[in-house]
UniProtKB/TrEMBL annotation:
SUPFAM superfamilies: Metalloproteases ('zincins'), catalytic domain (SSF55486). This is Predicted Zn-dependent protease, minimal metalloprotease (MMP)-like domain. Gene3D superfamilies: 3.30.2010.20. CDD domains: MMP_ACEL2062. The keyword Hydrolase applies. The lineage of its organism: Bacteria, Pseudomonadati, Pseudomonadota, Alphaproteobacteria, Hyphomicrobiales.
Amino acid sequence: MWTTAKAPSLAEMEAMAHQIFERLPSGFRDLCEGVIIRVDDFPTEEVLDEMNAESEFDLLGLFQGIGLPFRSNDDIARLPNMIWLYRRPILDYWAEHDEALGHIVRHVLIHEIGHHFGLSDDDMEAIEAEGS
């Protein structure tokens, strides 16, 4: 088995993230109406600088956009909400911890969405437990 095992590609991890997102509680998903999920190997230099990251491995994911509670009908054409997952930092984290890769991706999705909407750690733990 291990002689043929390999890390998921960008496309495979993006497909995994979409499948996991679709299984999150619907009320939680509704916060992200029209969200776009993308996977890249690493965050951009601009993101690393903005987040004061010491290394490209420091960020597992990022939510960019404006949440539903903060939108206004007066908003001029805005970019869609996006969740970025960073494949190489996620794989590095996976290699160092005794967790399933899907569990890590789910955790990152929930926390990126949750932090953006101001949910508490307890709220996010409850959402994680709901789908476990």
